[in-house]
């Protein structure tokens, strides 16, 4: 009996580590691929959670695969079923659990805006939305960071969510 437990445990570790490997090295590569692509399908299977499929409004050009327990939401273009963006959430944001995989560009949800900019350089664009209470920055490589408050002068502001997109 013990031999079988060890084998089962080893299989779980291999499956889990292959999922993390994909997230660490290839999450950015999923952006722009079609949802029927083998790599994306493998990623979905490894998430082991059924997506909540939704649209924001009828005129929206995208629909979403949301995985609240995994802290991830995927925006998909309606026109061709290609992945437009991947959103990675910190704990409790929009009822998501915190994303547990490797974040892009060696970011960490505990990073301050100052730490983010020391890793990525100054942002290429900045957006402040006081009504929705957010402040976000984006870089030409397709990385976007939304912070927990909308104070543009707060360099200690922590990461709320990270976006990986084709929009540069």
Strand and helix map with partners:
Blueprint: H1 2-30, H2 38-47, E1 52-54, E2 62-67, E3 72-77, E4 83-89, H3 113-120, E5 125-129, E6 134-138, E7 143-147, E8 159-165
Antiparallel strand pairs: 1-2, 2-3, 3-4, 4-8, 5-6, 6-7, 7-8
Helix pairs in contact: 1-2
Overview of the molecule:
The protein is an alpha+beta fold and 168 residues long. The protein is 28% helix and 26% strand. It has helices at residues 2-30, 38-47, 113-120, and strands spanning 52-54, 62-67, 72-77, 83-89, 125-129, 134-138, 143-147, 159-165. An eight-stranded antiparallel β-sheet has the order 1-2-3-4-8-7-6-5, covered by helices on one side. Strand 5 and strand 6 form a beta hairpin. The model is unreliable at 1-25 (pLDDT under 50).
Task: Name a few traits of the molecule.
168 residues; alpha+beta; eight-stranded antiparallel beta sheet; 3 helices; 26% strand; disordered N terminus
Radius of gyration: 17 Å
Uncertain residue ranges? 1-25
Span from first to last CA? Answer: 54 Å
The overall pLDDT average reads 83
Q: Helix segment count?
A: 3
Sheet having the most strands? 8 strands, antiparallel
General shape? globular
Q: How many strand units?
A: 8
The percent of residues in helical segments reads 25-40%
Structural class: alpha+beta
Q: Please state how the strands of the largest beta sheet are arranged side by side.
A: 1-2-3-4-8-7-6-5
Helix-strand topology string: HHEEEEHEEEE
The fraction of residues in strands falls at: 25-35%
